[in-house]
Write a structure and sequence with these properties.
This protein is an alpha/beta fold. The protein is built from 13 helices and ten strands. Strands 4, 7, 8, 9 and 10 form a five-stranded mixed beta sheet that branches. α5 packs across α6, α5 packs across α13 and α6 packs parallel to α13.
Length: 364
Amino acid sequence: MKKIVALLLSLCTLLGLMAGCSAKDDRVTINVYNWGQYISEGDEGYMDVIAEFEKEYPNIRVNYVTYDSNETMYTKMANGGITVDVIIPSDYMIGRMVQEGMLNPLNYENIPNYQYIDEAFRGRDYDPEEKYTVPYTWGTVGIIYNTKYVDEADVTGWELLWNKKYKDKILMFDNSRDAFCITQCMLGYDINTTDPQQLLECAKKLDEQRPLVQQYIMDQVFDLMENEEAWITPYYAGDFLTMADENPNLEFYLPESQGFNWFVDAMCIPTCSKNQYEAELFINFLCRPDIAGGNMDWVCYGTPETAAKEYMDPEVVNDTRAYPDVEMLKAKGKSFRALPRKTSRLMEELFMQVRNGIKIHLPE
């Protein structure tokens, strides 16, 4: 089975980040905090990235723990009390963490493999001076649906997620930014809008959908879609390819006419890190083309390194769902930027009203 249960991804639980692992070990331990299903760990013959790193750097041990959304990661980091050396947030969250002084500048002399990052992924809005980040992956957000149960004639755009025919078989993002982006695309609003009235209209649109939604999810999507307990969900293209390995009835649709999120996730070192040098060695290792290629073969997200594609399965590299046409991406893809803190709080408050079935209103 290509994917593994997130619980097995870490040798220590999140408590390990707070207190360290109790077993005596003379190695330096770096704590890596990453999305679930987002690094190759050696199942079914794929590369075990962490094992390869620890083999090359026997004095460093990697404690790997996962989160299921940018918001979950941010809350843990903002509340303090944990020690983390590497995180891999998405573009808009990186911008927010830079604004709030939560990231350390990187010493790129310790990351010479940064040279392999394509120019298109350098100097982006979230890190224009290339001080804090090294791109890890990129991807798109679209609709995953089960062709056994969903009529192709209904697959016309984001409105599929509001189709009453599929009540209780529809899943929805359990994070405000991705959820609001869908309604912003539907309503023709800027996905980085700060207009409270536009956000209110987006929340009302999400509230219309709520009676049809089986669950608000993140990593739970894998089991629910693969086992056909749900038939329709918005999610990330890379994860679709993982799900389709398990259930060939699944297909991916990108609503080009309405627009969609095109995102970049990047490796960063938070200010709470106690092992920056070792963390930079880990980031550099992940950028080495043979490692990046072997890793992305399993992860199935887009690699920001052309050099890595030489080491990847051509079937993955040539799959237009993982690597859509670049001109189309530029024309139809929309990238998140960091929002003002006031706007982020408002979006989260409105999404909480939707989730809890509270009458949608702007807070006073």
